[in-house]
Amino acid sequence: MPYFAAVFAQTDEGWMAAEAELAESETTEDVTDLLREAALETSGGPVLLLVEENDAWFGVLRLDGEDDPRVFLSDGSAAHNSALGGLLTELTEPVGEHTGPAADGDPLGDPALLADLGTDETRLLRLSERAIPTDALTDIAEHAGFTEELDSLRA
Question: Is the pLDDT of residue 99 over 50?
Fold first, then answer.
């Protein structure tokens, strides 16, 4: 399945953006290392990995400093059924009181991970339910302030 993945790192001058090649990522550590490499360019600001696969699901990974990455996936079951998404689901937990594997359409992870960047928990959950993944990532970028950087990568 075709996917889009990009890393966005907040620097003193604004957001830095780069496409992320995840096809060769075999472990969650590979993905985390990608984020940590981008963090070297920042002054302690957050690093985000935005992923969408074939308009079936989207995901956001966030790294702050030396902490473990936090993850949100819009549709845990759809993500789990792809190689890339299956890797990312290893970093998540069910949203809310649900335990066990995600049911069709249920999100996974931390829906509050973008609250300080303009997308609160309610908005992110609403995007996961109603928006096409490409549009959801655009909305996230707009609220965080890196729409131009996202658009330049998609062009």
Answer: no
pLDDT digits (tens, 9 = 90+) for 106-149: 899 999 999 999 999 999 999 999 999 999 999 999 999 999 99
Cα–Cα distance measured from residue 139 to residue 127, given in angstroms and rounded to the nearest whole number: 8
Please state, in angstroms and as integers, the Cα–Cα distance from residue 123 to each residue in 27, 77, 93, following that order: 30, 21, 19
- What pLDDT score does 140 carry? 98
The 3-class secondary structure across the chain, one letter per residue, is CCEEEEEEEEECCEEEEEECCCCCCCCHHHHHHHHHHHHCCCCCCCEEEEEEECCCEEEEEEECCCCCCEEEECCHHHHHCCHHHHHHHCCCCECCCCCCCCCCCCCEECCCCCHHHCCCHHHHHHHHHHCCHHHHHHHHHHHHCCHHHHHHHHC
Q: Do residues 89 and 78 make contact, with C-beta atoms less than 8 angstroms apart?
A: no
CB atoms within 10 A of CB 30: 12
The structure's pTM equals 0.90
Backbone dihedral region of 120: left (phi > 0), alpha (psi from -120 to 50 degrees) or beta? Answer: beta
